[in-house]
Write a structure and sequence with these properties.
Blueprint: H1 49-56, H2 58-63, H3 70-77, H4 82-91, H5 113-120, H6 130-147, E1 171-172, H7 176-185, E2 187-194, H8 197-206, E3 211-213, H9 215-252, H10 260-277, H11 285-296, E4 300-302, E5 307-312, H12 327-341, E6 344-345, H13 349-363, H14 366-383, E7 389-390, H15 391-400, H16 404-418, E8 432-434, H17 442-449, H18 465-471, H19 475-484, H20 487-490, H21 494-506, H22 514-523, H23 539-559, E9 584-586, H24 590-609, H25 615-639, H26 646-653, H27 655-667, E10 689-696, E11 705-711, E12 714-723, E13 726-734, E14 737-743, H28 751-760, E15 782-783
Parallel strand pairs: 3-9, 7-8
Antiparallel strand pairs: 1-15, 2-12, 4-5, 6-8, 10-11, 11-14, 12-13
Helix pairs in contact: 1-6, 8-27, 9-10, 9-12, 9-14, 9-23, 9-25, 9-27, 10-11, 10-12, 10-13, 13-15, 15-16, 17-18, 17-21, 18-19, 22-23, 22-24, 24-25
Length: 793
Amino acid sequence: MKRIASFILSGLLLAGCATKEQTAPVSTLDVESLRDSVDLNMDITGLSLSDLRILENVFLAQKGYPFEDSYIRSIYQSTTWYDSLMWAFSENEDYYDQNSGYWGGERNEELSYREEYYNSIKPEIIAYTDEQRAFVNRVRQREDELRKRNFKSGNEDDKVNVANIVNPALLKEPDLRLWDYLGHHGFAIVPAQHQQLFHVYEQNDYHEFPAFVTTDLYLQLYHLYFDCMLREVEQEKFMPLLKEFCEEARKKVSTENDDPTEQWLSTYFTVANALLNGRLATTDETAQTEYEKVMKSEDDMSEFMGYTDAMFNYSLFRPRGHYTRNETLGRYFRTMMWLQTVPFQTDKEEDMKKALLLAQLIGRDTKMTKLYQALTEPMTYLMGQPDDVSILQVWQLHQQEPDFRKLCKKVDEIAEKQTRIRPKFLRTGRNKVRLMPQRYQPDAEVLQEMVDYDSNTTKREVPKGLDVFAAMGVSAAEKILLDELNEPDRWSKYTSNLKRMKKRMNEIKWEENAATQWMSALKTVIDKPQHAPYFMLSPEWDKKSLNAMLGSWTELKHDAILYAKQPMGAECGGAGPPDPIVKGYVEPNVKFWQKAIDLLKENQKILRTHNLLTEKIATANERLTEEAEFLLAISKKELRGEVLKDVEYDELEYIGAKFENMSLELLRDSEHELWDWEAIQGPDRKVALVADVYTANADNNPNKSILYEAVGDADEIYVVVEIGGYLWLTRGAVFSYREFQRSIDDQRLNDEEWQEYLERHPRSGVPEWMTPVTVPLEKTPVDNESVFYSTGC
């Protein structure tokens, strides 16, 4: 039951905005005084739409009628008199038809229990006197007049008449700047520090705040699904395969032979096995040196790899992404990174001899070939094609061309066509073969090509995440880059390079693998459906969409950090009346919700094909699909102007708890029972994460650095939506996308360090172009929980 508060609405002083004489919801009703009498001749012309709705229901309140509308019920429950009347009403059997479905009669399966309850109330119990009816009709007529003014005319600065918002008292002493932004754009993003996006929706549920379900909420859960899927596959499937592969390979390489090629391969797999097992059991000094450099993870020369005139990127061996979650994943990360990055240069005969011997070792042995393919083929469908030439490709070419020199030439020719991500300034061979090459992803090519490598001193040392979506044809991203950030003024070749990348991205087969399918789905986030609500039609909403796209793209880069080749310059109720209805709204992006369903189907198909679909992931896939199908159906209803059913509003109200539950299921393992989010330990507890995406070490760049894409703690978004002709203030959660650089001399950031840094610098890395849609509040708006409070479910 709610806490009783003497609630006088006139205490809500929501004055006009500072920038303009704007009427915000101002109440002059003393609801406490409405218990016994109402002046039926009162002047109602000065009342707000919110007050009129309260006054329209006063005679029902005097009888203790349990309102379906949560806002109306809460306003009256804040008085000293309504609650006792409501419980007396609900306990009076004479008020109800005892033969109805709610009271034990035959149920109408098409109706919810709440609908059955309200249908069971005898009509005469809630009938009005003639005088009361006349008063109520006068109030309703005035409501109709005001509702015609929900939106401002096109030549005014404000789009929304915030004075008509019908649930203004949800916020306790809201900052006037929030109302200003709502009036101008219909929505506003408010800086917050929520550990997870679903926490905002759980707060909504507790405080009966209408939910605005964003694409961000779903995208965050999709990331967790994808990330946990990778973890499960890597630990349960790939790790045993990798162990067997590395052990078999090491056995096959003779340690007694004086052949330097065999000795090199012996050291190569000695290091791989040491990284996999977490210890080095050998007296091989070269293996010891390489193992120590990998574990230290600082760029250094490597005589073993032929990097005597250039630094090898040992910094890449520092576990990041989900690979910091446990020791097993960390060892897997380092081992796979070793097998993926150690190069065989096509222009060096001794390197190609090593590559050929390794190719023969795998290709001539059926078991080794199967182990290799079991590791690499699923990753092709998940992350993309190898960017460099693989050892298995060398074997296939060798079968066609046994002559060594001709083979080397053929491998080099294929590498020249196949490799798209290579440093612009080379100090080692242009083309390279690797055992299990990292994967080509289109965004990496964009990041690489949108940097100035030609000027004596670079005029654009790092790319931007916006470049990726501009190249994919998202005009809003391009507009920000050209008109707000003025990129062509800094670098004259920017526009021509972007044009070239747009052409290249048009050539990409986006349905080819799970990673590019994710990217393709993100492009639909900015789609504007037919009959879209007013707030989605503005360029400001485009920035909200871009923020979601970039936040989810960052999560993709985080999840794929091991496999994707990096470009470089170089988470009740009891007896009595049913709970009231809390309104809600879904971001009606029909194309995105459909794409999300398709994406999950493709993921399941890929995993089943490669025998990687576990029961846990299959269940998560099914639940995510059901949620996307529900949100798609609601979106279609909203766009058609249909009123949602009670049960649909209930689903939206409880969506935070559902998403928390699904998140817990994904993170739960056989050794840990997770009952609530407080049980989550480590970096998974927070949405904040980071991924290094570009190494700015080009020769013409004096300020060598690493570009990071990151997500901060979740922000809130307030949106004014029209439901049934009334304006409702809703709240949801959005990503907080970040982008920043750090010196190349600093070790590459992991999630733990980023989260710790955010505690001291919570808004670090927020792009300037988000300023127009972000309200600069010193503190997050506070809910009026003394009035609006639910025990939850």
